[in-house]
Structures are given as C-alpha cells and as structure tokens.
Amino acid sequence: MNDLLSLNNRVAVVTGGSRGIGRSIALELAGRGAAVVVNYNKSSGAAEEVVKMIQSTGGKAAVFQADVSDFSAAQGLIKFAVETFGDLHILVNNAGITRDTLIMMMSEADWDAVLDANLKSTFNCSKAAVKHMIRKRYGRILNISSVSGQMGNPGQTNYSASKAGQIGFSKALAREIASRNVTVNVIAPGFIDTEILSTMTPEMLESVIKMVPLGRKGKPEEIAFAAAFLVSDQAAYITGQVLGVDGGMGMM
Ligand code: NAP
After folding, report:
1. Using a 6 Å cutoff on CB, does residue 165 contact ligand 1?
2. With a threshold of 0.70, does the pTM exceed it?
3. Which strand (E) or helix (H) includes residue 28?
C-alpha cells in the first residue's frame, strides 16, 4: 500500500475550520486519516456540517467553539483536542479576518481586531500546542498567512502586518523548536475563492486577477493539498519555510 501523505493516527486542530480554506484543510486532513478538531468562532452550523461530513465517511472529528484571539479560549481548544483524541500532532493556524480600509480611515478597533484574530491567535494556539509537542518530540505547525503579508496591499495595513507577523513568528519558532522534531511552516495563499473576498467589488477582483500569472483565483482545495503535504511525515526536513500558493502572484 502506498501511504504517501497518510495522516493515519495523527490528531489535528484546524482553527477556523468551519468555512473557506480551513474547511477544506479539515476535510483534506481527515480524508488522509487524521482525527480533526474543527474549531469555529461564530458559524456553529457550518462547523457541525464539516464534522458530519468527516464522520459520514468513517473519519474522526469533533467540533469546538473558541475565539482563538482570546488566550484562555485558545488554551481550552488545545486541551480539548488532547483530551478528546489523546494526543496532538498537527496545528493549523488558519482563522483570520479582514477589516480593510485606508489608514486615514482605519480605527484602532479595526487594527486591534485584525491583529488579534490573525496574529495573536497564532501565538495563543501555538504556545499551548508546543508545550505538548515538545514533550512528545513530534509536531507540525502550519500557519496560513497571505501574499499580502509578503507584498503589502493598499487598504490592508492591518491585515498585511498581521500576515507578515505570522511569517516572522513562524521562522523564530521554527528555530526554537527544531531540535524537538517540531516543524513550523507557512502557506501564503494568493486570492482564493472564499467568503473573505466578498467585500471586494467585481472591478477590484478583476484588477487583482490581472496580477496573477496563472490568471485566475485559487480554490480552497488547492491550499488544502499543500497543507496536507507540509503536515505530513514526508515534509520532515522542511521547517521555517513559506510556500506561496498564489498562482505565481508573489514570486520574487
Ligand atoms: P473565511 O472564508 O472568511 O473563513 C474564515 C474562518 O476563520 C472561519 O471559519 C471563521 O470562523 C474563522 N475565524 C475568524 N475569526 C476567528 C476567531 N477569532 N476564532 C476562531 N475562528 C475564527 O476566510 P478564508 O478565505 O477561508 O481565510 C482563511 C485564512 O486564509 C485566513 O487566515 C485568511 O487570512 C487566509 N487567506 C485567505 C485568502 C483568500 O483569498 N481567501 C488569501 C490569503 C490568505 P467563524 O465563521 O465561525 O467565525
């Protein structure tokens, strides 16, 4: 049997697993054998649907509500995963929001909300997971950043800062815990067809797509497959890296 990219006997937490990219990642990891904790903040129905889909095909999954920007809620999420499935091997920090506006209009609340949901959440969940992973001498942390964190994007000073922050965080953490066999990597998606793009007008979207060498939006499943690789045993010698899954948009 070819068990390439198998995640049998692995336990994964996917933050923001209720919708969009996180949903696809949860389904992909479960399809490869992982038991998955599907975290959500507000979309309980959508999160439960993801869990049902996994269970209906014989997979293992559980749902857990937590606002991961809250430190103690994030600790609770990781504790739940370990208590429910007995271990934790994979953490995907995917939860994220946008509050786009030009800096002259950006409120302190817009800044704080985005930094907390995207960057502080990554710290909150990673800190709890690392404690477990370094004891077990095994772990895969994957942070979902953005091409906006690499290139910058007008109207997204808060979002771009949070996403660039995730990249710096990941490189520092990768160096801290490599000796314990825990890898930390980043996917930087380009424009992916999810609800997060719903605030863009068709004209904005059209102009953005002109910047994509492959000439189209990406699909959530295209991020999920790259995620499955980076959290697999086959990616054991990859850490501190940023993989652009962006149709070529962010290439240097
Ligand atoms: P989406 O469709 O809007 O989904 C966002 C997910 O994050 C939802 O499941 C949401 O859960 C969850 N979430 C938000 N805040 C949360 C919090 N405080 N605690 C727990 N969960 C929270 O967005 P998406 O496009 O899939 O984006 C997923 C990730 O990819 C984000 O980090 C985003 O920045 C990144 N990304 C997306 C694109 C793109 O073009 N789509 C491009 C680059 C990077 P609830 O609904 O339950 O609140």
Report:
1. no
2. yes
3. helix 20-31
Say whether 159 is catalytic. yes
Q: What superfamily does domain 3-245 belong to in CATH?
A: NAD(P)-binding Rossmann-like Domain (3.40.50.720)
Tell me the three state secondary structure of residue 127. Answer: helix
Q: In which residue are the tokens 């999954």 written?
A: 61
What is the best residue among 23, 94, 187, 217 to mutate for testing ligand 1's pocket, by most ligand atoms within 8 Å of CB? 94
Domain boundaries defined on the chain: 3-245
CA within 13 Å, CB half, 112? 4
Both tokens of 66, joined, read 């937590």
Q: What is the pLDDT along the chain (252 residues), one digit of tens a residue?
A: 568 899 999 999 999 999 999 999 999 999 999 999 999 999 999 999 999 999 999 999 999 999 999 999 999 999 999 999 999 999 999 999 999 999 999 999 999 999 999 999 999 999 999 999 999 999 999 999 999 999 999 999 999 999 999 999 999 999 999 999 999 999 999 999 999 888 888 898 899 899 999 999 999 999 999 999 999 999 999 999 999 999 999 997
Q: 40, 138, 159, 237: which one is catalytic?
A: 159
